[in-house]
Amino acid sequence: MNRKRYNIPILLFAFTALLSCDDGITLIGDSVTKLSNDCIKRSLPVAPNIVGNNIEFAYAMALPSDLGKLQSAQVVASIPGGEGTRFDPNSYYTNNAGLDVPVPVASESVTNGATTSVTFTADTCASTLRYYYYIPEEARDREVSFTFSVKASNGQTAEYKMGPYKISKMDMTLNKVLSHGNACYISFHNDGEAVTVYTAADLAANSSLASQTDLVYTYNDNTDLTHGFFAANAPAELHPGVTFPSGFVSNTKIIKVYGLRDRQLSDLNSSLHVDDLDFQEISFNTYYSNALKLVTEGGLWIETADGQYRAFVFINATAANTATISVKRYKM
User: Fold this and answer.
1) Within the chain, what is the greatest distance between any pair of CA atoms?
2) Model confidence over 39-73: pLDDT tens digits?
3) What is the dihedral of CA 226, 227, 233, 235, to 10 degrees?
4) CA-to-CA distance for 123 and 20, rounded, in angstroms?
5) SS3 175
6) Cβ–Cβ contacts within 10 Å for residue 318, how many?
7) Kindly report the CA angle at 42 between 36 and 47, in degrees rounded to 5?
8) Is the dihedral of CA 221, 225, 230, 232 positive or negative?
9) Dihedral angle of Cα 113, 146, 73, 103, to the nearest 10 degrees
10) What is the spatial distance between Cα 75 and Cα 81, in angstroms, rounded to a whole number?
11) Quick check: 99 and 146 in contact, CB under 8 A?
12) Number of neighbouring beta carbons within 10 Å of residue 207
């Protein structure tokens, strides 16, 4: 977690001065006598930074109006961001309803390699811009740092460094819908996705997919069974009427849990996050070939039969014959 000291008065000044830039506006505390800047990480501070997602920052810049106006801003990342890395060209203020209201202050940003830059179009001496860094594959299991800088019309410059931030090794996929007897064949072995769900039609068209299947989801209205997940070696009496696909041989290890409400998978108001260390330390000395009676906000720890992948499966929602899951996956 980043432990840089944040100068909140500068941020407050930037938000307040955005629309007015009156000579009489000063910081709470020391007066602003030159171009100043500050930055905070808006993303969840202790959540893992995962490839394919954004790290979001708020970059505040200000100088007294009698010294000049903001001219340009940029940020240089130690690892170039993926497509979608950008500055938001708006500043924001909060209205009486508590909603963020955008105020255009800059041109659309330009990203060239590791550098993202923006030119101010509004006649302003203070602004706070949001910067979104799209985490690329190249950053996986590495650290990334950022250098923010601003230039004013009087030639003054200021710089602010953020990071380093560790990028997780894991993958994450959200809100995959499973359906009994159809979209029910689950694989953790595909590149680029934490989980892939095959349908019956997929397997009929490509029989080799059965060998990549790690779990089968089923639903039974018997209250002792309901929503279940099964490895190939699960007892047949626990999935009556369900025929597993030919070639499905994976003896996946399963541990059932409840109450692990990962904030990134569930979007619940929780401070819990499954991270890389959790995958490294979870023990599969005791495990099962099935998990029955799964309910909303339940979960599963998974280890594939070949030991290549571990996963945490969160149950977002359940209904008759269907379940929605979100998954974090870690390659061992």
Assistant:
1) 81
2) 999 998 789 999 999 999 999 999 999 999 999 99
3) -10
4) 10
5) strand
6) 19
7) 140
8) negative
9) 110
10) 11
11) no
12) 11
**Residue 34 · residue 156 · CB < 8 Å:** yes
* Beta-bridge partner residues of 100: 94
Contact 331, 183 (CB under 8 A): no
Helices (H), 88-240: 200-205
| Residues 242-265 pLDDT 10s | 888 889 999 999 999 998 989 999
Q: Which two tokens stand for residue 37?
A: 């800047």
Please compute Rg for the chain using Cα positions: 25
At residue 112, does pLDDT exceed 80? yes
Instruction: Report whether 120 contacts 21 (CB < 8 A).
Output: no
10 Å Cβ neighbour count for 26? Answer: 15
Within the chain, how many helices (H) and strands (E) appear?
Answer: 4, 21
What DSSP assignment string belongs to 254-316?
Answer: EEEEES---HHHH-SS------HHHHHH---SS-BSEE-S--TTEEEEEE-TTSSEEEEEEEE
The one-letter amino acid at 251: N
Helix (H) or strand (E) holding 37: strand 36-41
Q: Is the dihedral of CA 2, 299, 257, 287 positive or negative?
A: negative
β-bridge mates for residue 178, sequence order:
323
The model's pTM is 0.86
Q: Which two tokens stand for residue 205?
A: 């068209």
Q: 36-58: string of b/e by CB count within 10 Å (b at 16+)?
A: bbbbbbebeeebbbbbbbbbebb
| pLDDT for residue 9 is more than 90 | no
Contact 103, 18 (CB under 8 A): yes
Residue listed under structure tokens 């809100």: 175
Task: Please give the single-letter amino acid code of residue 91.
Answer: S
Single-letter amino acid, residue 50 = I
How many angstroms separate the CA atoms of 152 and 280, rounded?
A: 48
Owner of token pair 């495990």: 287
